[in-house]
Amino acid sequence: MKILVTGTAGFIGFHLAKRLLERGDEVVGLDNINDYYDVNLKYGRLEETGIPREKVEYNRLVSSTKYPNYRFIKLNLEDRENLHRLMEREKFDKVCHLGAQAGVRYSLQNPYAYLNSNLVGHLNILEGVRHFGTQGLTYASSSSVYGLNRKQPFDVDDNVDHPISLYAATKKSNELMSHTYSYLYNIPTTGLRFFTVYGPWGRPDMALFKFVKGILEGREIEVYNYGKMERDFTYIDDIIEGVVRVIDNPAQPNPHWKGEPGSSPAPYRVYNIGRGSPVKLMDFIETIEKVVGKKAKKKLMPMQPGDVPSTYADTTALERDFGYKPKVSVEEGVAKFVEWYRNYYGV
Question: Is 213 helix (H, G, I), strand (E, B) or coil?
């Protein structure tokens, strides 16, 4: 297939592009390479897939030196004219839209970045899919949409009307926008609510990266809600396996629909994608300490605005429809991340 993957200088998009390329798909990667976190890491991911940093220019396709079926373009999602020109010219079979302004806490500081990238950008992708003949859209939602939901594990048919960050609100909006396009234009759309993804090449603003960095440097690590938190940590390879299965099987209408939020009479689906096994934050830190071989200096902090104390994915629907079953334990996943971190940063 010929697939557009947005966010390929990002963590999940980088890994997805590699997986698709290695199985023989033709991929065009897209990213604006913004400075939300260290751009050197983003360029490092691109270079790992054969995209030389010095060749990257805005709105210019660059061919990979490593994968003959990979090209990359630096582009803003809100640049409708150039995005649609690309989609019209390339005639993609599928689109996997992972590019977005990430981060719960950053959405409190820079809300307009989320408006432009996550709302305008998502609409531009939907319009491109509508007008230029794409067979289906898979896109990133987030576990943050569950907001004030107290019922656990989180189920795709739970109410998600109470987000507590603008980031979460934009992700719920993406699901609503996608359903509208599925209903009006018969476009298959599938949203994936990611649960705390981690692994090699991960984001520096995420807990594992910050904890490993802090412990290795002998600095205090900030532990929020005084450590009384749980996260459904999910290793990147398990996530990518689920994403690929969804890309290969576009959403179908639910002929037995009775009002459940996770499906529709339109070709629309939303799934949780996580490990389905939450880990206490203090246990997670202890695992890191064992792998690194060094004790953490902890600075216990109150809960941050927009954060939730616990996430726990009910992945029953993804297991039922795609045979999805995560395999990588937290211990194994943390060890793989630490190995990558030491090699990449030479520590």
Answer: helix
